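Section 3.1 - Work completed
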Amino acid sequence: MKKTFKRTAAFLAALTVGFAGMSMPQMQQNALAAPTQMVEYLDRGITAVNTGSGMLVSWRFLASDADNTEFKLYRDGNLIYTSGAGKATCYLDKGGSAASSYRVETIVGGAVKSTDTCGFVSNTSYFTIPMDVPKGGTTPDGVTYTYSPNDCSTGDVDGDGVYEIFVKWDPSNSKDNSHSGYSGNVFIDCYRLNGEKLWRVDLGKNIRAGAHYTQFLVADFDLDGRAEMTCKTADGTVDGKGKVIGDASKDYRNGGGYILSGPEYYTLFDGATGAALDTVNYEYPRGEVTKQTWGDNYGNRCDRYLGAVMYLDGERPSAVSVRGYYTRMTAVAYDVVDKKLVKRWGYDTGYNRSAAGYSNGNHNAMPADVDGDGRQELVLGATCIDDNGSVLWCNWMGHGDAMHLSDFLPDRPGQEVWVCHEHAPYGVSLLDAKDGSKIFHYDHSKDTGRCAAGNIYAGNPGAEFWGAQSGSVYDSKGQSTGIERPSMNFLIYWDGDLERELMSGNAISKINANKKIEYLLMADECGSCNSTKATPCLTADLFGDWREELVLRTNDNKYLRVYCTPYATDVRLTTLMHDTQYRAQVSTEQSGYNQPPHPSFYLGSDKNLPARPNVAVNGGYEPESGTLIQVLDVQDSANRLNWHIGNNAQVGSVIYGDRTFTYTTLPEALVGTEYIQTACDSKFSTETLAGFTAGADMSVYVALDNRVETLPAWLNGWEKTSMTAQSDNDVTFDIYTKNVKKGEAVELGTNGQSSYCMNYTVFASTVPYEEPTTEPTTEPTTVPTTAPTTEPTTAPTTAPTTEPTTEPTTAPTDEIKPTLYGDVNVDGSVSIVDVIMLNRNVMGSDTISPIGTLNADVTKDGVADANDSLMILKSLVDQLTLPTLS
């Protein structure tokens, strides 16, 4: 279901035994400079789900796509739908099934820019992600507990354009701050969409479990193409690699289960491994917990946290952590630089009741550019913190439980905030987001705990607003619309129109033309999260077109279900995840009392579609095209920049994009052909490496290292020829071929082996391969004239004289000559893989070739051992220069 890529960096973990004291080199891309907001690279995100009336196939329209981009959808190689400019990127294929194979061609100006296959196919309307449920336990006071999936977030941890899911595990005894009692540990996992668990972080006994304590933020903070995670940690937190943060022996829980003493930390975690990259002291610490400081003396108000991902500099995401909103309010912003947390700014009201923000926060936070300067602010109910850490406005209306922020009134400049209030005069308010002033307000007689806002009804211009203050649903002027008041929880873009649907518990509903509630989905086998809040694990535009996916836990807590819309649409819209406000609010969605993400623009059938986002895609990749090899889409994201299309293959041509080896022999059938310079390091990937479209009827050839012991499955059905090629590092390649038609997609799978071999290479020629028909004519003429002449004269004279004298003296000399010091696996380069292989050899779990043994002996003491492994490792971190061949 998910393309899984193995990177060289992933092997670092296996090497730590014996080298724990040595820092390892970080592998990262250079951040792209840009004058505007950077958004993450995403692939086409094609999905196909069974609607009961056929397969609904949908895919992303990206911010990097031209306005006039055309898409062609193929089922089993046959064109079934063309999405011209402005047409939807989805299609209901009534003739398809879950067994169908779908691909999408992206075409600009008549040229095919990419070809993408569908990697997410389901015979239902949802995808299932199996979970590794943590074992329950017993608290010090004898209470047993179990675990269920709770709040989730998403980010691309490996740069392949496909999201991973981050899951916070909630123990059954999690506590609101206002309640005493012990709780189980909090765990955060990261899963691929196929259920592969990448890592687990155990926050430890000194982080309490509940909605207010752990706000984990996921984003590509340093723009290296891979997401990181931040959250509050403490003594005893264990990262995804098993490393303890602080002192694991400490237990700061008091008799009421609160943690009111001990150090507090904030940690940056690697998204791919869960390793703690950097830990700093939490700012601002709790200090003294009394009524005079935080408003109580038992630990309620001091441990109310919020978190947000924000574009503070107008270019890249920052992490913001908020502590306190009942009384003292604090906030601190961090950038990630060189995998370190660097403080950007801090804000603290202190204990000054007259300070802007004091007692005027919220149970949630929402980032948005409210003043139109290209940088985002943080709206906290009655307070808004500017991008520079100062207070932009505070309207002193106190805090509340819910908040929604978007361009709800498109005929009015700027964005609006809809809030409910826990302080007198209570009720609900619609505010101008740029200054916090009231647009309209209704009082209430008590704490107003719920409210929601969105364009949910096509018969009324602009959005609608409602809350627990009354049974009314209001329009832009605060007048009743007569709409039956729906749930006041989440919203979701679900069906095919531009109005938004309602989501609460395990149900999705909408307001129909009669102003009544109509149910669209009942996920009966799934449950919601966070008690009476009844929130989903996550809603976000995870893949497919612009509609959102719904992530719920199953009732047995063993799975996540990702529900996809079964409805077609005629609307083409850029993926919501490339709107930076929506993307930041997705990352903030799980903070405090969860709120749904809102885009920066208005969507509704009463208005034109919004302008496309003015952003730059970070790490975007455009496939190469040649004459015969068209739209070479390299899916091995770790090495894709080293794949190239070359013309006129010759003896002496460079074989790989990441090596300098050349061909020393090449069959005549391959001379002059168009060819693919693959990356040798792509051999480490365990999934499909690339694909391309045939530009003509032609023969495709694959040159496979003859040391590969098991033929890769994708080459089954290809014909093995009698031809071979050789490289200048003495590698022989067997040649396989098959004929393809113009327009046919060609898949290039794995190399099938990563050690003691090189990656394969690929050639294309319009001259058909005809070995079966040429063998009868070639062998009679070649064998009688060439073989007899060569064999009788060479074999009798050379074999008797050369074999006894030359082989014993020459062959051993060739075998014992090192080719490159440090190159243990003899692939022509020195990398971390060579250290791993030698380390395993020393421990007896792996063997290396005779040449590899000589290459490994960098100390030249006649033995390849741990000292040599250490020397090679030091060379990789620029602490040592390896010897060179004399």
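Second construct:
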Amino acid sequence: MNPMKIVFKAPRLKPVLIVILATLLLLTLIVIPAPRQDVVHAAGELKPFPQAVNYAGIIKPNHVTQAAMNTAVSTYYDYWKAQYLKNDLSSLPGGYYVKGHVTGNQQGFNALGSSESQGYGMIITALMAGHDANAQSIYNGLFKTARAFKSAKNANLMGWIVADHINAQGHYRSATDGDLDIAYSLLLAHKQWGSSGTINYLAEAQNMITNGIKVSNVTTNNRLNLGDWDSKSALNTRPSDWMLAQLKAFHEFTGDQTWLNVIDNLYNVYTTFSQTYSPTTGLISDFVINNPPEPAGEGFLDEFPETNIYYYNASRVPLRIVMDYAMYGDTRGKAIADKMATWAKGKANGIPGNIRDGYQLNGTTYGGYAPAVFVSPFIAASTTNTSHQAWVNAGWDWMKNKKESYYNDSYNLLTMLFMSGNWWKPVVGGTTDNQAPTVPGALVANASSSSTINLSWNASTDNVGVTSYTIFRGGSQVGTATGLSYVDSGLTASTAYSYTVKAVDGAGNMSGNSNIASATTLPSSPVGVNLALNKPATASTTEGTGFEASKATDGSSSTRWASVEGVDPQSIYVNLGSSQSVNKVKLNWEAAYASGYTIQLSNDSGTPTNWTTVYSTNTGDGAVDDITFPAQNAKYVRVNGTARGTAYGYSLWDFEVYGASITVANLAAGKTTTTSSVEGAGFEGNKAVDGSAATRWASVEGVDPQWIYVNLDSSQSINRVKLNWEAAYATAYTVQVSNDAGAPSNWTTVYTTTSGDGAVDDLTFNATQAKYVRVHATARATAYGYSLFEFEVYGA
């Protein structure tokens, strides 16, 4: 593993002599004219500084004028530029870098800066264009350095060290935070100068986002790892890398759903972590590991002891969180920022200089100094609430005069840009675009299993580009896709479904409906049939002739697959030929068994790359393992061995997969319902269980929480609930069950989410006995209430 960079606070600088200060001040008054707001924009900036944006729901300092804030930012930038922006690399003429303090193993080179400092500099320079007439040439020089110092592992990323030696270029591996900022800065550059010049900023950004960060830093569990040296299945992650607004921009400019999945997961990780470790402070540790998430231990990655508390990495988090609310209106970000801000203001007694550099997660003070990288982000987080106005005003006055070191000054300037409204949101296309995309053509639907239908269509065209496609089943939205295909799963066996698709462009315009395509799902897979029998199998390695992967799926317990000896990990997967509902894997191990392994599923249509773990063990003992798990749709099933039980390899006599039984009867159909409220006549609870998608239950408007439950009449074994939401859906809700004999009062939660997106939610969970099933909604997506077309329950 390559060492990760962690930036510490630099020692405080000693004051300069009063005589020198007085001399400089006198020269300034005599020689240097006052800064002007009406600078000449010679580089043709499209969004020249100052932009002075007002974010919805965000307050600014109100004791100074906007012009005064702009002047404070430009003055601070001039100082920062003179102090840290350099172009003195003899090994890379024309290459700019931001000189910053770096710790960690520099591997024989003298580090001058890092990808982190490069990212800060590129964002700052793009935002300050217009004030700085040379901003574009400086930015291009920074980009030149970022590309020259490419990562040794993924050339689309930047190595984490800048050093003045030709051999340092391409020597180091990457650090996630620097690349996220660099890629985002390219989107800002595209909106600032356009992409028709010497550098195609947009193409460079999209390539870096998709072929760099997505390939190397987005993990299989939708977290962000620490760099391209880190594992794609890593659970360790650094919250200061959770740049949620930047990830939303990545989604807008690529149309890739991956980024929304990552955002949703990171919010869930944050919520789970805070509920356990920081329920009153909202603080998070410098590094987070494992699932459920928990603080990393002291000295994680051998960098420094304080990796388990709120320290010099996590101090950056409040700015990253509040920007997602400011720029994209995500209330999850506001909730976290509100908690942090309220705690921080109270801890400091309303005096910014009382903030300290480090806290235990419960709020106990650890540090003894007030650096900007701790103070400024807390002030930024406080801009979500007018009750913090005096604290925000005091914070601004403290920030604009604070000058100390690269790390603190750079993050202080970024925060000032945000708080003054001069960090603007990059938007795909233009805000005046009203041209809808063309209608998607040739929609085709094909059933691939008893619960899955595959859709494909021809591409739409648009003047600013198509970013996604919206899929409708029977007139109700069921999902989105960024490509030209979609897999609709969780369907009922032997049932006909009809679909249409619409295209969406970068400005949010939607096309008309495609043609209607229909398909009927296949009958249920027979229980007890080995779905893997004689199906194609693929292995990571083979010991030799006669031990091929196919020997594990040929139905003979006298032939076997065997991997090469003495190497971990090793894997074998079987292609079932089509998506199947599976819930059981049976493994007949030879003497060379796995003590540690996982069972993983993939429903990819082509070569499998996205795997979901449904079973894991570190105590395997060989012989026969008969493993069951909640039913899921899968085309590929993999055994991934991570620890050998012997000195040899891994070997399986038999690798069997079995289909799950699908119960088609909706147990809630026509049953009695009870609700917390009803909007009015015609919206009663029974409308959600009447089998008609044209009628619905609706709660009263504007009140949380609300609920509906159905009485199944008797105790049933259930493992699936299907919800067809009307436009008034829940972003946060739980599914609960009760097996009480009379009126239900004891509820057990079997499913919970805080990232609901409406349409159809087809939910599975471990089989449980229930007489009553309840949907308990706690957060609305709209100003209205909650409304369900259909509330279905299925037996296990």
